[in-house]
Amino acid sequence: EIVLTQSPGTLSLSPGERATLSCRASQSISISNLAWYQQKPGQAPRLLIYGASTRATGIPDRFSGSGSGTDFTLTISRLEPEDFEVYYCQQFGSSPVTFGQGTRLEIK
Amino acid sequence: EVQLVESGGGLVQPGGSLRLSCAASGFIFSNYGMSWVRQAPGEGLDRISAISPSGSITYYADSVKGRFTISRDNSKNTMQLQMDSLRVEDTAVYYCVKGGVGFVSDYWGQGILVLVSS
To answer: What is the pLDDT of residue B6?
Structure first.
């Protein structure tokens, strides 16, 4: 099983700042099989990024993904108030499909 | 428009059973693997079961193996999760998700609450 470790667990920043979220895999993942999700309270997760760097439909361009191998990053260039939520990475190339434990982005 | 609508959740006593259903629309259901992902209160995401497009291949997390059974009916565009021998620790919101191994989880249902309590 591929374990995904996200860091930090909580990130405290202010609107307008840049956020960098990390996802580290226990073994190498094809970039095709890495995704990022955003979850708001009481809602289902929403796909943000797939293929490590491709934005899903309707996702603002302030969200970007990068990385390869075992290290992946979600960057939010200029935080908007609606971005302060929980973010999960996921690998779906190997069974079982696994998620990271999440990073909570909170307003400083 | 892709829609996934879960039903069948609710309150059940430990040891009881529930059957979740997911009604899918807006895509060719028989072409895609499907999954159930659950989220315990205040916790992260846990994919507990999945099924291949034809239904011939299934996956279960160790936590539910032997107690839960996933199935699908491609003629009705539905997926089910039969949950037996429920435990308190099965309490969670259960999401129906489009996508399996090799496919991104691009659409999620709204989620349905399963509460296991005496």
So the answer is: 98
Residues in chain A closer than 8 A to B102 (CB atoms): 33, 92-93
Structure tokens of A77?
């260039």
Distance CA B94, CA A52 (A): 26
A56 and B CB contact within 8 Å: yes
B49 close to B35: Cβ distance less than 8 angstroms: yes
Which of B11, B40, B38 has its CA nearest to residue B22?
B38
Rg value, chain A, Cα = 13
Sequence-distant (≥ 6) Cβ neighbours of residue A82 within 8 angstroms: none
pLDDT in tens, A68-83: 999 999 999 999 999 9
CA distance A23 to B22: 31
Residue in B50, B59, B106 closest to A47 by CB: B106
Radius of gyration of chain B (CA): 13
Contact across the interface for A35 and B102, Cβ inside 8 Å: no
What is residue B99's three-state secondary structure?
A: coil
Question: Is B67's pLDDT higher than 90?
Answer: yes
Angstrom distances, CA of residue A59 to CA of A3, A64, A74, B91: 27, 10, 13, 32
Do A90 and B50 make contact, defined as CB atoms within 8 angstroms?
no
